[in-house]
Amino acid sequence: MLIRRFVELITPEDCLGCGRNGVVLCATCAHGNSLAEANSLARQDVPDLDGLAVGAYYDGPVKELILRLKFHRLRSGEEAAAGLAVAAVPASWLVDVVTAVPVSAGRYRERGYNQSELVARRVAKRLGLPYSSLLGRHTSTHQLGVDRRTRFEQVEGAFFPLHGAQGRRVLLVDDVVTTGATMAACAEVLRAAGAVAVYGAAVARH
């Protein structure tokens, strides 16, 4: 594990799309997979969010990027993923803090990190905003293959506040969004904790 991380630090990455040396996701491949519409899901489709911005479709090199972030902690991919999310965030959004969709304590122990937090911290840095861990998670659920209604039911009550969000305008970051159920559940908790606005930003849409 240590050897792999050391090699990653000293060896230039190849683009996951075209194989170009020196960058994990080149501008051409990122642009080819990007969403024409930044706010890809209508606000009414994701309760409690004031807006949702998504950087790319969950396909091709972007999918590979996220999978490597999620399961192998591809450090060089954190900045590329954050760049996709930030590029989709409208300049009109008034935000004063960035947070991430959390994973459960068990999942964190299993992997040793939360990939959404890694990306969110990079997003915060790019936007010149503070990062704060505002949420915790009781349990993790496997939502792959279930319908929209089930997804919303699975995450009901899954999250809890860690720190005060009173009066804050929050940008909530996740790696992948499908129905928006997870973000909606997080936003509900943040609003109950006093947040005056909650926006969502995801690297990709499934």
Summarize the SSE layout with pairings.
Elements (H helix, E strand, L loop, with lengths): L1 H9 L16 H6 L18 E7 L2 H13 L2 H14 L8 E4 L4 H7 L3 H13 L7 E3 L10 H7 L4 E3 L7 E9 L3 H12 L4 E9 L1
Parallel strand pairs: 1-6, 2-5, 5-6
Antiparallel strand pairs: 3-4
Helix pairs in contact: 3-4, 4-6, 7-8
Strand order of the largest sheet: 1-6-5-2
Q: Which CATH class?
A: Alpha Beta
Beta-strand portion reads 15-25%
Averaged pLDDT: 85
Taking the alpha carbons of the first and last residues, their distance comes to: 30 Å
SS content category: alpha/beta
Q: Rg, please?
A: 16 Å
CATH topology: Rossmann fold
Largest sheet: 4 strands, parallel
| Residues in helix, % | 25-40%
Which parts are unreliable, with pLDDT below 50 for 5 consecutive residues or more? 6-12
Looking at this protein, list some descriptive labels.
Rossmann fold, two-stranded antiparallel sheet, globular, alpha/beta, 206 residues
Please give a structural write-up.
With 206 residues, this protein is of the alpha/beta class. The chain has one domain: Rossmann fold, CATH 3.40.50. The protein is 39% helix and 17% strand. It contains 8 helices and 6 strands. Strands 1-6-5-2 form a 4-stranded parallel sheet.
Describe, in short, the structure shown.
By secondary structure, the protein is of the alpha/beta class.
